[in-house]
Design brief:
2 strands, globular, single chain, 98 residues
Length: 98
């Protein structure tokens, strides 16, 4: 049975303010990193309970907007999920080759 991999967009406390300044949907994020972290950890727990393997994918405030721009995407939640899933699946594929 194949375990499906889900990328979870993950932020660092030290990047929080800069991220909030570069994302197009800042209002969708909590003002506090701590509030976001508790919610994100809950998403990881719930996703894993459903049988998925989760991989936390760091959203770098300098790299992510460039990735979005190169693909004509807004730097929003949909793009963050897409980015995280692409990198998680690539990472999982590389890990299974060894």
């Amino acid at each position: 049975m194949e375990i499906l991999v889900v990328g979870i967009p993950w932020y660092r406390r030290e990047d929080w303010e800069e991220l909030r300044s570069v994302l197009s949907d800042t209002r969708a994020l909590p003002v506090s990193y701590g509030v976001w972290l508790r919610a994100a950890e809950n998403v990881v727990d719930q996703t894993e309970k459903k049988g998925y393997r989760t991989i936390k994918v760091h959203i770098d405030p300098k790299v992510f907007p460039k990735w979005c721009q190169s693909r004509g995407l807004r730097a929003d939640a949909k793009a963050r999920r897409q980015y995280a899933n692409i990198l998680a699946k690539l990472g999982a594929q590389l890990a299974t080759r060894h």
